[in-house]
């Protein structure tokens, strides 16, 4: 049995449906992420799990018990917010001890558990400090420690890294993964940052307009999106209208608008005559000089329209002779200063026969 089960949960605000008949199961010990754009319903769903909002219909079960109607303070669930929500007049140790005091734990037990919580987040020497004496990352670790100090069945995290700068955010992602492994508490994490979701999660639920579009492991969400929305929302991708000319288990032959015949990966659910889109990731597209011998199945010529230098990689936007634009990624792996194709340069782009995927509309 799943630790958390969300069954047919719906939440409306007036005529607006924020969460629409959502079904999700989360296993014990899982790092589960709700991912989607602003307004997709992920925070509303998290608030209903916490008990801050009530669903209009459906069930939210924890260990098989329906929690709808149970007040937030009576649920074995804690929430960590982006704003940290630390008490400014309390020390770090007092902030962490607060939920234990509310639960009327004995003082010797509180001291022991606070000490363990500080160790878990590597702040054992900071217990006497006040929140204003801490950095953003340290404040966030205190918030994690307070959320975990009495071992809730479920820890809810509402964009907890959103206020941190990029480098610190990346460091905190690694800490969060290790913390979840060490304490073994089930995490339900809300974010709109795709890279964060891919890096942290055991599984991801991609949400859009109040509904769940796909639930899967990060690698499958990225490499095998179920539809155009998921493909377009997760990472960078080039998408072109396509019609299936031939459907075999091993491959598809597509008529791609502006490109002509293209070979793509096989897909059991696709039939000859289906209309949809072909999608391909920039890292799957090879960019080279036009004179290069192109042995790959799909190859086309064009010009560099623009490029974006990112340090470790450069992303090129290549405009083909028919006006179609495709993104290609080139690692800057050679020693010394990176050499670029410049805007206007003639180039060739190519990709493997099994790189592109076809998605029904």
What's this entry about, in short?
This protein is an alpha+beta fold and 361 residues long. It is 23% helix and 36% strand. Helix 2 runs parallel beside helix 4 and helix 3 crosses helix 4.
Explain what this protein looks like in three dimensions.
The structure is a single chain. The protein contains 8 helices and 20 strands. With 361 residues, the chain is α+β, with helices and mostly antiparallel strands. The strands form 4 sheets. A 6-stranded mixed sheet has the order 6-7-8-3-9-10, with helices on both faces. A hairpin with a 2-residue loop joins strand 1 (4-13) and strand 2. Helix 3 packs across helix 4 (136-148).
Query: Could you estimate the helical fraction of the residues in percent?
Result: 10-25%
Per CATH, the class of the largest domain reads Alpha Beta
Radius of gyration: 25 Å
**Annotation field: number of helices:** 8
Total tally of structural domains: 2
Estimate what percentage of residues fall within beta strands. 35-45%
Distance between the termini: 35 Å
Adjacency order of strands in the biggest sheet? 6-7-8-3-9-10
Large-scale geometry: globular
What is the β-strand count?
20
Topology of this protein?
Layout: E1 4-13, E2 16-26, E3 31-35, H1 42-50, E4 57-62, E5 65-66, E6 77-81, H2 92-102, H3 107-120, H4 136-148, E7 154-158, H5 166-183, E8 186-191, H6 194-200, E9 203-208, E10 211-216, H7 218-223, H8 228-233, E11 238-247, E12 251-256, E13 260-265, E14 275-280, E15 286-288, E16 298-309, E17 313-320, E18 325-331, E19 346-351, E20 357-360
Parallel strand pairs: 3-8, 3-9, 6-7, 7-8
Antiparallel strand pairs: 1-2, 1-4, 4-5, 9-10, 11-12, 11-14, 12-13, 14-20, 15-19, 16-17, 16-19, 17-18
Helix pairs in contact: 2-3, 2-4, 3-4
